[in-house]
Design goal:
Blueprint lengths: L13 E3 L6 E3 L11 H14 L2 E3 L6 H11 L60
Parallel strand pairs: 2-3
Antiparallel strand pairs: 1-2
């Protein structure tokens, strides 16, 4: 596959979201992809180079999200376990208290994990639905 600069060694194609921050991964269905060393290596490099990667229109199980997270590094499960969470290592947030924890990040901008003695190296987030 080629990236926007014509580099054919990429595992998946990307396109810039802004001139300085973030890329969108196109043409990759994570639910159908093998978590190969080359895929994980590419994800890590893209996170270093671009700071975040957006994957649109994905359908991930809780287990797959945790598997991807574990492939990036050891998962640190630090928060309350909501009964509706799809996996014990996933912190579920929702506007509906029956679906997830509420009032999270209500103090303004924050970076998850910075309160830890060793802050998170990577973070995965999955939004099955968003308010419009």
């Amino acid at each position: 596959m080629m990236d926007p600069t014509g580099n054919a060694s990429r595992v998946y194609p990307i396109r810039a979201l802004t001139p300085h921050l973030g890329v969108e991964c196109v043409e990759l269905d994570l639910s159908q992809s093998k978590l190969s060393l080359s895929l994980i290596t590419q994800l890590k490099q893209d996170l270093i180079d671009h700071r975040f990667i957006l994957f649109r229109n994905q359908t991930l199980s809780g287990q797959l999200q945790v598997d991807i997270s574990n492939a990036l590094g050891a998962v640190q499960s630090t928060f309350y376990k909501h009964p509706a969470s799809p996996h014990p290592d996933i912190f579920r947030v929702s506007n509906d208290p029956s679906q997830g924890c509420q009032n999270v990040g209500r103090s303004g901008w924050h970076i998850d994990g910075t309160f830890q003695p060793r802050p998170f190296q990577y973070q995965t987030m999955y939004f099955p639905s968003v308010a419009t």
